[in-house]
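Q: Protein A?
A:
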Amino acid sequence: MTQDKLGPLVPPLRFAALQPRLYRGSYPRQINYRFLKRLGLKYIVSLTPDPITPENDKEFYEFAQENNIQLVHIECGKEGGKRKKRGVPIGYSAVVKALELMINVDYSPLYVHCLNGGQVSSLAIACLRKLSFWSSVTIFNEFLVYTNSINLHDRTFIENFIAEINVPEHKVNWIWTGLSKDIIGSHPTLKFVNTNDKKYSDIS
């Protein structure tokens, strides 16, 4: 069958490859399924108000089932308002859950999405960049690529992100490349621990 008969490969809105085998974008629609199938996804993480079920999105659910893709739902609110009045519809606990999946190679390839691929996904990815020691300026510049605006609530949420992150036994190979364990263990706002609750700098 020719490419013309199959139709075009259409990525989801605001789609991007963040790192090898880690992708972001908007809520997938039927037109995006062929594109997503070619990524060989193992997991799709939905940062949305409701989970993907046969009742609320039969086509998406069946696409995942047919392609052996596991669906993970992390509850978040809807993107709210515009510009200065826009609130923050995701909590730190939800971000931590998402980050621990994104840095675990056992969940790769992974696609993370919110409803429109904008604010919610961008807040989670901004925290991933903070975990990766990106500067605030670089984080905010990337944020603006996908949202067109960043307000005080967004900036405060990112700057005040303080958490304990569980480092999986099989972490992705792109995280902290070139950094020593002493540097990683002295992150100014984040604490990294393994399953035995050791500080990351103590992990051999």
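Q: Protein B?
A:
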Amino acid sequence: MRAVRLPAIPIKAGFGPGAATWVLLQQVVVRGLVAVKFLVIGRILGPSAIGLASVALLAVAIAESLSDTGLAQAVIQGQSPPTREEAGAVWTTLATRGLLIGVLLVASAPLMDAQFHLGGAIGLVQLAALLPLLRGLASPAYFITQRERHFQHIAAIEVSSSCLDCGFGIGLALAGAGPYSLLLGMMIGEAFKSVVTWIVLSPRPPIRLRWSGIGHYVGFSRWIWASSVIILITNQFDKVVVGKLLGPTQLGAWQMSSKLAQMLLADAALALSQYLFPTFAAHHRGGPQSAARLFRLYLIVAVAGLACVVIVLRFAAEPLFSFVLGAAWLSAVPLFRIFVINMAISALNSVLASYLRAVGDARAVTVASLLQVVTLIVSVPPSLHLFGVTGVAWSMTFGLASCAAWMLFRVSRQK
């Protein structure tokens, strides 16, 4: 039997400016700093304060997803880099979007207060309104740098920004700033990042109002917007329900248990999927059977490993919360035990999605996401009515399982 020769995968090793090592380093350090920030501030402030800050960040996430222009991805994906005039139009559009989102959030702060039981803490939402503006003011040279695969520069900016976010956030929490510390740390990090993109990166676009000349990006960016809306529903639907119906304290417990389970399970799978997608694709180009065999191996290892981790974390949940977050968070242990199952299924879905996209069946992944959305919409209301916040968590499990079942079915249909 003739051995299949796989094509070379164009991934640079080492520490050159375009080396994949910088992407991995950035992921590890940034996610690690986010984990430290949330755990330390969560231990200092408790569930209620984290819930209040989460409502403000939820408002930002919804507004940014519904208004996602997709211009950043379009610049990276386009056949040729943008001219200085086109980059100027991109900056004008993104800065204007950030300003409009900020104005909308300030105007809607009283409504958010009434709907999510903020207890008059509308200043949190109004402060969070600065985040999209700070992000929108960043130079489009950042996207061009990503396009040109200068990962070293991107990693340096992201890690520095995360260090400032983490350091100032924890320092402000210790100084008594309460839930505002979480937002102020993020604002300092985002402001630093935006300023650095103008000082360090090139080419610098002209700073003047210009909207024309970027129509060719619209065809691609509209699909990014559609994808953002689907991701918004799958990622934020549960938080909206819990925050609106059960209040900030329950939302804080929900957020922290979800975040901790994500750090321990799903984040590692997300990083792994960045390796699996090009690897499966390379094997598929060499021969579909080669990719299928490799996929089955990774699937078996993933299922066995995730099952072991879930069992350990469910048994260790109470001492883990007591040691890491303190006694104030022990009420979140039942949620965490459900979320480790959720995140294990989500990790499995990352492997399935990587394989399906690698063999050219990206449509199956989109359909799976839509199926998850439908399942959530149908199952959450009765589950919430019957079982409260844990019912919502089990509905998420059902939605993720339906997503996995569909992708497994599509995998079984591959020739």
